[in-house]
Each structure stands twice: as structure tokens, then as C-alpha cells.
């Protein structure tokens, strides 16, 4: 999309002004507010936002350090009915074939995601189908699949953690739930599919 | 019996006889009501009377406010045949609400429009929508003159189009508030521009003054099916409205003052809608303002919206 560059300058200035004006009456409570301005974005602020993402803004007491799933509580993985646990059908004795081939099952799965360079077992663990595996071989649960995606989509993952990419529900000031990447993008064919819109509003003439 | 309250209206030029029409009416009604109270009137009569001689919302004592909310709950509960709650949750200190919308993500599906209708008890017939989703050409960029709100495609996004949902921009410097002759609309300390539907006289000056076309007038009597009414309401937010008053987006006051995200944020399937506290450096809204290219609508008017548009890509 075309973006006029002077707009950005103008918008940036206005936002600065607005924030400066808006924060005046509460300056005492927010001594840092006036000093952090648009376009002075640093890694630090991004990181801080990320770290704080899951902690309530107004939590009075410091809670113990949170990790992994605690830091990013997610909505359940969107499995289709009956497919999980995968170990119902898959086991350690599965024949492992890492060259792309026609899979005689899961016919609804079409790999359309950098498919020239990818095969199922780059993401799914050959020995333990109930887990995903990262490039370094570590196994992770499906509730942490964002870590898998983040290996190749680093900036998106960072924005996701900060609540910018994707969606968080719950409380803006407290506990939030993240939607997994897989809830919006099929990992196998991740392009967001067009959907049917809700009805157009009635025209004014029709209302009266 | 309560004392006749003085009306906090800006005094209009008194007519020749020395009494304004409203004063005369009030006195007459007061006499009637006094008589009615003496003989024991119904709760509905009492509420009607109180609404007529009411004080401004901001001048109500905690006791008076409690009374008003209680009689209002009673009326709505009778009207809709289910328990309706009306609260007046105060703003939180240290909070200034801000909103951001990612134009590169929005696909124009209108889930937000209808989520808002249900959450905020907008009239189904006649139809009231607080959110308007505008379709525009990617090639042309943001041009409100050539925007189409009535697009009707099989699927969205349509090729070559992008979408811009517009609702109340919750200006820091709101023109609508300035032109209201009776102070029925004002900006709260947490930045939400609110309307007291019982104080609104329906003059529609605010509608003319809003540069964003965000305010709606109830030309007809609003109707909401009983089973669809959201019973968790706020006085300055989503309680049922009457004919002849103005309404608009309140950032889901009934949700956000309790810490929840607005409904439109929660129902957006693409995650294009972002909300939070502008005064909290760790909020997603601050992350966006600091890391993305944000802009506001018609910024040359110096309305200073707290609704930011941006491109996430």
C-alpha cells in the first residue's frame, strides 16, 4: 500500500504532542511517560513490553519469575476432533521417510508453506508425534507451537509476544490469553483465507 | 420528598413573563408529582418524575445516583423480562485509554460491527451501527470521499481493496462536547467521551460537529429483542436508549472499566484491533505507537483522537 512519507512525519509529531499533552496531569505517577516517545523505539522497550505482556499492570506484589507457558498462556491448539493424541496411531516403530512423498492419510493436509524446502518431519517429531521439534532437536508441546514458527518468523513472534501481531483476549490490565499462530494460520498452508463478510448496513433511506 | 433541584442549565434569555417554559413545566409537574407521592404513586411514575427534574449526572450525590440506578434497573428489568444491571463504574486513576487498528490486517468482515451491536444494545430495527467499515482502493490510499460502506462481496478482502473501520475517535479535544448546549456529552478522566442519554435533548449539534461521522441519532424508537439484550449495562454506556437521543461508541465502557478488552477487539478474527492504557509503557498500545507507523484521521483539525491507525507490515 502506498504511504505518503509526510503523513508519517505529521502523524509522528501529532502523536508526540498528544502524548505530551495527555500525560501532563499525571506526570507524577508516570515519571517515565514523557521520556518515551514514538520513533525512539528501542529493543529495550519492545523487550519490556514482551516481558510484561502476561503480568497484570497493577499487580502490587512481584510474582515469581514466570516461564514458557506461564508467560504466554494460550488458547487450546485448534486440533480437529479425534486427531490428538497422535500416538493413538503413530508409534516409535513408524517407518521414517524424510523425502517428500504422497501421504496416504490426512488427505486434507496440503503443504503450501515453502513446500520446496520442507517436509512434515521438519516440524513434527518422527519418534514422538505428540510433540513438535525445533531445528536444534528440542521437543516442544503443541501449546508452544509459536516457538516453532518463531524460528523462521522472528520479528512476527516478537510482535506477537507484545500483543501486536495476532490477538490477545481477556484483560487489558491483567491476565490475557494468546491465540496461537495455528489458530489463525494453518501451519501447512498459512495464508489467511478470505471469509464471508457480515451483511452491509442498511442504507439511510431504508431506515426511515 | 426531595427538594426541587435547581436546574444547572445555562440560563436562556427569559421570556417576557419571567418564567421559562421548562421552569413552568417543571413546576407544574412538581405539583403533580407531589400530589401523586402523597397518594402513593408507582415506581414508574416516580422515575419519570425524577428524570424530568433530574440533576446533571455529575451533580448527583452517591445516594441519589444509587437511587437512580436502582429505579432504572427496575424499569429495564420489567421492560425486558430479565435481570438488567445498570452500574456507574468510575474511571480508574492513571488510565488513559487508547485504541489502534492495523489497516494492513483488517479484511472488512464486519464481525466487529455486529459484535458491537450485541454487546452495546444497539437498535436492531431501526438499524443502528456504531462502527462503519469503509472500503477503499489500495491504489488510491486513504480517501474518505471515495469510501464505500455498503460493499457486499461473496468473500473479503476483495482484490485491490483495503478496509478502514471508523467509530468514535475519543478525541482529547472533542468538537462534539464543545457544541453540546446542555453538557449532555463530556470527556471522562480516562479519556472516554460519554453521553448521558437522559440529559440529551436531541438537538444533534454534536452530530454536525463530529468530523468522523461517529454519532448516531435515534430517529425512531430503538428495539432490541428481549432475549438478545445484554443485561450488563452502564449508565454512561450500553443501557437501552430511548427515541430522540444521540449515541455512539463508548470504548465498551462497561467492559474496559472492569479491565476487559472491548468487544470488537475480542471478536476480530484477524487481530487487527488493539486496545490499552496509553499511560502504561508496557501496554500493546504503547508498543504500537513506539514501533509502528501510526497516524490519526483528519489530524489537521487538532481533535487529537486517541484512535490510531497503523500499518503492521
What does this protein structure show overall?
The complex is a heterodimer of chains A (208) and B (313). Chain A has 208 residues and is mainly alpha-helical. Chain A is built from 8 helices and 4 strands. Chain A has helices at 5-23, 43-52, 68-71, 120-123, 145-150, 154-161, 181-184, 204-207, and strands at residues 132-133, 139-140, 168-170, 176-178. In chain A, the strands form 2 sheets. A two-stranded antiparallel ribbon of chain A has the order 1-2. Chain A has a two-stranded antiparallel ribbon with strand order 3-4. In chain A, a hairpin with a 5-residue loop joins β3 and β4. Chain B is an alpha+beta fold and 313 residues long. Chain B folds into 2 domains: 18-53; 93-313, Alpha-Beta Plaits (2-Layer Sandwich). Chain B is 27% helix and 15% strand. Chain B has 9 helices and 12 strands. Chain B has helices at 21-39, 43-52, 62-80, 111-119, 175-179, 205-209, 253-256, 263-267, 284-291, and strands at 85-87, 97-102, 132-137, 161-166, 185-187, 193-195, 216-217, 232-234, 246-247, 273-277, 293-295, 307-311. In chain B, the strands form 5 sheets. In chain B, strands 10-2-12-11 form a 4-stranded mixed β-sheet. In chain B, β5 and β6 (193-195) form a beta hairpin. In chain B, α2 crosses α3 (62-80). The longest helix of chain B is centred in the N-terminal third of the chain and has 19 residues, at 21-39. Chain B is globular. The model of chain B is unreliable at 1-26 and 32-39 (pLDDT under 50). The interface between A and B is large, with 65 and 72 residues.
Amino acid at each position: 500500500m502506498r504511504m505518503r512519507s509526510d503523513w508519517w512525519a505529521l502523524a509522528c509529531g501529532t502523536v508526540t504532542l498528544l502524548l505530551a499533552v495527555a500525560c501532563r496531569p499525571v506526570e507524577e505517577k508516570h515519571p517515565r511517560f514523557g521520556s518515551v516517545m514514538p520513533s525512539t523505539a528501542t529493543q529495550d522497550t519492545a523487550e519490556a513490553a514482551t516481558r510484561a505482556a502476561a503480568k497484570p499492570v497493577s499487580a502490587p506484589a512481584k510474582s515469581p519469575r514466570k516461564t514458557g507457558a506461564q508467560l504466554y498462556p494460550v488458547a487450546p491448539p485448534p486440533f480437529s476432533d479425534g486427531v490428538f493424541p497422535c500416538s493413538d496411531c503413530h508409534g516409535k516403530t513408524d517407518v521414517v521417510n524424510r523425502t517428500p512423498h504422497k501421504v496416504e492419510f490426512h488427505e486434507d493436509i496440503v503443504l503450501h508453506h515453502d513446500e520446496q524446502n520442507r517436509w512434515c518431519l521438519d516440524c513434527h517429531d518422527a519418534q514422538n508425534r505428540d510433540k513438535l521439534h525445533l531445528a536444534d532437536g528440542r521437543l516442544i508441546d503443541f501449546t508452544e507451537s509459536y516457538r516453532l514458527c518463531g524460528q523462521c518468523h522472528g520479528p512476527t513472534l516478537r510482535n506477537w509476544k507484545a500483543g501486536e501481531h495476532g490477538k490477545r483476549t481477556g484483560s487489558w490490565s491483567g491476565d490475557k490469553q494468546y491465540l496461537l499462530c495455528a489458530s489463525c494460520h494453518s501451519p501447512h498452508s498459512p495464508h489467511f483465507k478470505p471469509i464471508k463478510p457480515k451483511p452491509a448496513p442498511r442504507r439511510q433511506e431504508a431506515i426511515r | 420528598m426531595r427538594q426541587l433541584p435547581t436546574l444547572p442549565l445555562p440560563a436562556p434569555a427569559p421570556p417576557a413573563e419571567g418564567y421559562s417554559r421548562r421552569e413552568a413545566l417543571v413546576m407544574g409537574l412538581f405539583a403533580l408529582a407531589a400530589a401523586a407521592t402523597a397518594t402513593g404513586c408507582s415506581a414508574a411514575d416516580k422515575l419519570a418524575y425524577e428524570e424530568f427534574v433530574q440533576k446533571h449526572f455529575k451533580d448527583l450525590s452517591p445516594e441519589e445516583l444509587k437511587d437512580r440506578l436502582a429505579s432504572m434497573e427496575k424499569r429495564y428489568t420489567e421492560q425486558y423480562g430479565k435481570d438488567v444491571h445498570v452500574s456507574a463504574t468510575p474511571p480508574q486513576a492513571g488510565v488513559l485509554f487508547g485504541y489502534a487498528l492495523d489497516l494492513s490486517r483488517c479484511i472488512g468482515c464486519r464481525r466487529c460491527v455486529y459484535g458491537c451491536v450485541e454487546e452495546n444494545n444497539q437498535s436492531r430495527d431501526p438499524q443502528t451501527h456504531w462502527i462503519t467499515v469503509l472500503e477503499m482502493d489500495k491504489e488510491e490510499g486513504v480517501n474518505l470521499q471515495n469510501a464505500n460502506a455498503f460493499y457486499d462481496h461473496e468473500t473479503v478482502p476483495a482484490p485491490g481493496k483495503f478496509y478502514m473501520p471508523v467509530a468514535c475517535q475519543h478525541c482529547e479535544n472533542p468538537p462534539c462536547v464543545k457544541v453540546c448546549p446542555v453538557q449532555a456529552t463530556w470527556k471522562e478522566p480516562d479519556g472516554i467521551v460519554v453521553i448521558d442519554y437522559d440529559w440529551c435533548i436531541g438537538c444533534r449539534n454534536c452530530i454536525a460537529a463530529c468530523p468522523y461521522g461517529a454519532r448516531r441519532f435515534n430517529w425512531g424508537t430503538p428495539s432490541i429483542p428481549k432475549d438478545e439484550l445484554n443485561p450488563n449495562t452502564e449508565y454512561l454506556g450500553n443501557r437501552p436508549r430511548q427515541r430522540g437521543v444521540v449515541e455512539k461508541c463508548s470504548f465498551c465502557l462497561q467492559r474496559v472499566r472492569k479491565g476487559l478488552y472491548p468487544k470488537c477487539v475480542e471478536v476480530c478474527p484477524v487481530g487487527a484491533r488493539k486496545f490499552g492504557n496509553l499511560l502504561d509503557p508496557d501496554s500493546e498500545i504503547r508498543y504500537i505507537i513506539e514501533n509502528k507507523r501510526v497516524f490519526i484521521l483528519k489530524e489537521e483539525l487538532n481533535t487529537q483522537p486517541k484512535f490510531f491507525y497503523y500499518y503492521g507490515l
